[in-house]
Amino acid sequence: MQKLPCLFANLFQKKDVLKSEKNNLVNIENSIPDDIPAILALYDHAIAYQERMGAAQWPKLTTTDIQKEVNASQQWKISINNQIACIWMTTFDDPYIWEDKNKDPAVYIHRIATNPNFRGQHFVKHIISWARTFAQQQHKSFIRMDTAGRNEKLITYYTACGFTFLGAHLLSDTTQLPSHYHHIPISLFEIKL
Q: What is the pLDDT of residue 24?
């Protein structure tokens, strides 16, 4: 299989190593093809959790979806003791969600999912710490996230982690977006660097 050109080549050739809330070593690095079954399982678990909570649900992701992100070095993981503890996806372009603000130089973080065996370790704080360095290396001025709906618990958590809540609004054009973005307010968050 031919690997697609890497958008993030040579940025994090070594692992970023941090300490978790439980004093475990936390490695942050790109996901690799061997991680795809675990990534899909974590996303399936997250979707089931969203359904149980009555929240907007991510679409079912396929091996092909994740393979494209892995090949483009857009899929990331936190590993603890050689186990995937948390995953997320990044991009530098998000025009359908951020609309006019998409012209700002930003790193967009999507689909953070935590392994249930590692809940409560505040991985979003680790992701933000990592993203600050990553964004600066890419000459970006913002770290941005969104979530479908107006989940007050998530808004409180993300703002406690350092994000500014920019409000929730309906998107003007959702035809190019997954169904969980349709007919529901989208909450936007950013950190200005």
A: 58
